[in-house]
């Protein structure tokens, strides 16, 4: 209910990250459906900053999700998460995690990947550093750290 299924027209009205982004991060961290379901069932009932898999700026903006223990049973939650895993992110979803500006290194990497006929999803390829077609927790967290460092540097004047 809190996570909108589509991008709202007025971003000032959202109270939680949209579902497409949530599911993108979930699948990057837990590509296996069974593991993703187990994580969400636990997290939704017992959320904490330490367990959160979203980008740090989302936690800063929205805070930690309130526990839904007592609002939905674990069995109901499993059904909801399996449906979300099968349907989100939508095929046409393009996350905003990269922001409007990309570094020269990222632009060069994307051009090089395109020229070499590599994976069409440059974002995926940038995170999947060992090229095995899977994103591990370590690859994801390394990417998150580098993005946060890059975002932190934007807008700072010299």
What does it look like?
This protein is an all-alpha fold and 158 residues long. The protein has two domains: 1-97, no CATH class; 101-158, no CATH class. It has helices at 19-29, 33-45, 56-62, 74-87, 104-115, 122-127, 137-153.
Low-confidence stretches: 98-122, 154-158
In this structure, how is the largest beta sheet organized? none
- Range of strand content: under 5%
What is the molecular shape? globular
* Rg, nearest Å: 17 Å
Separation of termini? 43 Å
Residue share in helices? 40-55%
- Report the total helices: 7
Short descriptors:
single chain; 158 residues; mainly alpha; 2 domains; globular; disordered C terminus
Q: How would you concisely characterize the structure shown here?
A:
The chain is mainly alpha-helical and 158 residues long. The protein is built from 7 helices and no strands.
Set out the fold topology:
Elements: H1 19-29, H2 33-45, H3 56-62, H4 74-87, H5 104-115, H6 122-127, H7 137-153
